[in-house]
């Protein structure tokens, strides 16, 4: 029937059609392709694991994933900044090891938890700045420079630890950084302090990258170093600062490791962090050539890696198979990164 009401309904059909709220529309408009791909991959992984074990969705397990990825997440945030600037830092795992031992040694001489935290952060910052100086003053390629310091810093960590053995920690306030939880009740396992620390650091760095001149300069020097130099950006100073931040965050990761295992570990707990961090950053969509990426996408990739590891543990998959999976993930991440870098270079060539 084509009466007036029917025609009116047709005429007004467009205005009556359900609309997506503006806030939701703005949120999805800001989700880049890489982040959306990671969200889909994470959802599929969760479905696959949950279909095999009913332990996955237990609150304690979900919060344990957050606690377990906190160390990798802190290192990956620092690595994100370095890669955005068009460089690379392979020494972050070794820096975390040195910071872990240094924090433990400091706690043997003070009863203040802050003393251990300050010592770990300062050594991480100092070693990060040292990386920056090697890259800028000596003009050594970042990969070669940080590969060399990776070995040197690892050696220093073992020299600091008597006999290369773990340095014990008993300060309860410090230990809470790694294993403490808030809102812990009989029915709720509590939110890990280390997870809250990661969230705070990641949010602060994301805001810095998006809304400060320093953050925009990082994107600029990674995207087009020549143009950044012409714009008045001191590339050498920026590189030193960036490596310093990366080192400090690696030091913070080492502090969390020390607090979690109640000992300063020269290698165990920090070994392999550099490869895992680079994997996460590249999976998050960062370009190896720099100028593209975000902390949010990196955190999604870290969560993906952590969920995969948790799922394999729940399913009783042997450790060496997990190592194979991590290796394949790294190869995939590097291949994706190389493809994106080549695509970006072709785009620059066409526009230039």
* CATH first level: Mainly Alpha
Distance between the termini: 61 Å
* Helix-strand pattern: HHHHHHHHHEHEEHHHHEHHH
Fold-level CATH name:
ABC transporter involved in vitamin B12 uptake, BtuC
CATH architecture: Orthogonal Bundle
Number of helices: 17
What is the number of strand segments? 4
- Spans of at least 5 consecutive residues whose pLDDT stays below 50 are 8-13
What is the number of domains? 1
Membrane topology: Multi-pass membrane protein
Protein name: ABC transporter permease
Keywords: Cell membrane, Membrane, Transmembrane, Transmembrane helix
Pfam families: BPD_transp_2
Q: Your description of this structure?
A:
This protein is mainly α and 352 residues long. The chain has a single domain (56-351), classed as Orthogonal Bundle (ABC transporter involved in vitamin B12 uptake, BtuC). It is 73% helix and 2% strand. The chain is built from 17 helices and four strands. It has helices at 4-11, 13-16, 22-29, 33-50, 59-68, 70-84, 92-107, 113-136, 142-160, 172-179, 193-211, 213-223, 225-230, 235-261, 273-283, 295-314, 319-351, and strands at residues 167-168, 181-182, 191-192, 263-264. The strands form two sheets. Strands 1-4 form a two-stranded antiparallel ribbon. The protein has a two-stranded antiparallel sheet with strand order 2-3. α7 packs parallel to α9, α8 runs antiparallel to α9 and α8 (113-136) packs across α10. Its main location: membrane. It comes from Candidatus Dormiibacter inghamiae. The chain crosses the membrane at residues 35-53, 65-85, 117-138, 143-161, 191-209, 240-261, 297-318. Keywords: Cell membrane, Membrane, Transmembrane, Transmembrane helix.
